[in-house]
């Protein structure tokens, strides 16, 4: 039976692989059409577009909101917001100003900086490659932790002359955990808030994501030469259709089957969401995440053979990131939801167990029973439930 599904998926991908060429024009590298103009100016906030180049040549866009609606210049420290998988910086700006974290922070006197991961609509530049080159997509979250995050941290630190607070959601927590565990960037950090924290994925209960990992979906895309994982592309959409025909998967509400039952997302805002998200990532990144689901470890990308791993790491298996190595005095605010299928409660517990020696007064853990994955960025009550406690935590550090 599993074999049959695999065969069908292969056929679907094969016949939709033709799509790749036509698409690239859709993406904009034009600052005049950037996130500031699209999502921030329209709400009456000042906004600056910035460009940051990573050590491996990717040109990332960042947006800065230097003042709130009062017009008074920020008197609190800079905050860097880093979005999750298949999202971009727009995810912090989709709700009304009283509901969206980026605006709320600006209105509370913080100097707000928004990051956009390589490969998403507003970060598709590179010093020598284009997204049409397969090597442009030769990265996973190892590189996001090693290059994107340090580049944006450093840039905000230099521009503001201050240490910063960090807010990550989902993949934006994984890259932070990985970097912090290697003692990176901590000299520039005041504190970090990690929403829907992801370090371990072994217990992940999203049936859809697990099915995709089990049938080696991402590996097949790569095998067929689709190095860019574009969730709006025919290949991925076709595959989803196949997965959804499996009677174990209920896809009547894709967002719910994937992320969990979000209690407090405004359903009439979904259309606006779908205009901007989801965004592409590297197929290799999806493979890396699937390896974590299947293997239960937080380790570097597995090249699949002793020989290849030796080439990259000088050891037969990929090096692990040791969560217990995050220095005990780093102020951390972790918030996870009881309905979150991606940041599963059991996996978060494994993470907390590994932080057992963390200074008690430096670790705040918030559990919200009715929150799922998307509530952390889109819930209409997220200000009261998560962002107010988060800002109270920032004030202490
Ligand atoms: C990318 O950005 C351009 C310019 O703002 C916009 O017109 C287009 O819809 C965006 N595409 C996606 C897939 O987000
Ligand atoms: C947003 O919050 C401000 C300050 O709390 C309040 O004055 C304003 O009425 C709110 N706006 C909306 C649309 O709810
Ligand atoms: C699928 O989910 C929808 C809404 O979440 C529900 O109404 C429906 O009964 C479910 N179908 C099955 C077969 O479980
Ligand atoms: C939900 O979204 C609609 C359309 O954007 C908006 O008019 C309404 O005020 C929103 N409701 C809440 C509670 O934010």
Architecture overview:
The chain is of the alpha/beta class. The protein has one domain: 3-Layer(aba) Sandwich (Rossmann fold), CATH 3.40.50.1820. Helices cover 38% and strands 14% of the residues. It has 15 helices and eleven strands. The strands form two sheets. Strands 1, 2, 3, 4, 5, 6, 7, 10 and 11 form a nine-stranded mixed beta sheet that branches. The chain has a two-stranded antiparallel sheet with strand order 8-9. A hairpin with a 4-residue loop joins strand 1 and strand 2. It is globular and about 55 Å long. The termini are far apart. The structure holds 2-acetamido-2-deoxy-beta-D-glucopyranose (4 copies). The site of one 2-acetamido-2-deoxy-beta-D-glucopyranose has 4 residues, from loops.
Percentage of residues assigned to helices:
25-40%
What proportion strand? 5-15%
Distance between the termini: 55 Å
The SS-based structural class is alpha/beta
DSSP E strands, number: 11
**CATH architecture classification name:** 3-Layer(aba) Sandwich
Envelope shape: globular
**Number of alpha- plus pi-helical segments:** 15
**Strand and helix order:** HHEEEHEEHEHEHHEHHHEHHEHEHH
Largest sheet: 9 strands, mixed
Query: Within the CATH hierarchy, at the fold level, what is the topology?
Result: Rossmann fold
Radius of gyration: 20 Å
Low-confidence stretches: 14-26
The CATH class, by name, is: Alpha Beta
CATH fourth-tier homologous superfamily: Alpha/Beta hydrolase fold, catalytic domain
Bound molecules: 2-acetamido-2-deoxy-beta-D-glucopyranose
Give the count of structural domains. Answer: 1
* Global mean pLDDT: 89
């Amino acid at each position: 039976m599993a074999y049959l599904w695999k065969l069908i998926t292969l056929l679907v991908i094969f016949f939709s692989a033709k799509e790749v060429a036509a698409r690239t024009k859709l993406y904009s590298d034009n600052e005049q059409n950037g996130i500031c103009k699209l999502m921030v100016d329209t709400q009456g906030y000042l906004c600056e577009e910035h460009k940051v180049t990573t050590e491996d040549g990717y040109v990332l866009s960042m947006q800065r909101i230097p003042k709130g609606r009062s017009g008074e210049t920020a008197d609190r420290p800079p905050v860097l917001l880093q979005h999750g998988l298949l999202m971009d910086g727009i995810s912090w700006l989709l709700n009304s100003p009283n509901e969206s974290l980026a605006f709320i922070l600006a209105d509370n006197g913080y100097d707000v900086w928004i990051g956009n991961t390589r490969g998403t609509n507003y970060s598709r530049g590179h010093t020598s490659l284009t997204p049409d080159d397969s090597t442009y997509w030769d990265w996973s979250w190892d590189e996001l932790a090693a290059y994107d995050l340090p580049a944006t941290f450093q840039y905000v630190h230099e521009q503001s002359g201050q240490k910063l607070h960090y807010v990550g959601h989902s993949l934006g927590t994984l890259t932070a955990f990985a970097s912090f565990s290697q003692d990176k960037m901590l000299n520039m950090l005041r504190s970090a808030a990690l929403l829907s924290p992801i370090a371990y994925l072994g217990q992940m209960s999203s049936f859809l994501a697990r099915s995709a990992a089990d049938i080696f979906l991402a590996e097949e895309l790569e095998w067929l030469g689709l190095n860019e994982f574009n969730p709006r592309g025919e290949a991925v959409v076709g595959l989803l259709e196949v997965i959804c025909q499996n009677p174990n998967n209920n896809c009547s509400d894709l967002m719910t089957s994937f992320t969990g039952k979000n209690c407090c997302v405004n359903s009439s805002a979904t259309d606006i969401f779908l205009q901007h998200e989801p965004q592409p990532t590297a197929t290799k990144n999806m493979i890396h995440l699937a390896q974590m689901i299947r293997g239960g470890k937080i380790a570097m990308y597995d090249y699949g053979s002793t020989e290849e791993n030796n080439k990259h790491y000088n050891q037969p298996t990929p090096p692990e990131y040791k969560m217990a190595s995050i220095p005990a005095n780093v102020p951390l605010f972790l918030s996870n939801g009881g309905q979150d299928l991606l940041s599963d409660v059991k996996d978060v517990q494994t993470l907390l167990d590994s932080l057992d020696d963390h200074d008690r007064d430096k670790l705040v853990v918030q559990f919200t029973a009715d929150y799922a994955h998307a509530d952390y960025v889109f819930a209409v009550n997220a200000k009261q439930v998560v962002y107010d406690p988060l800002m109270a935590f920032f004030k202490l550090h």
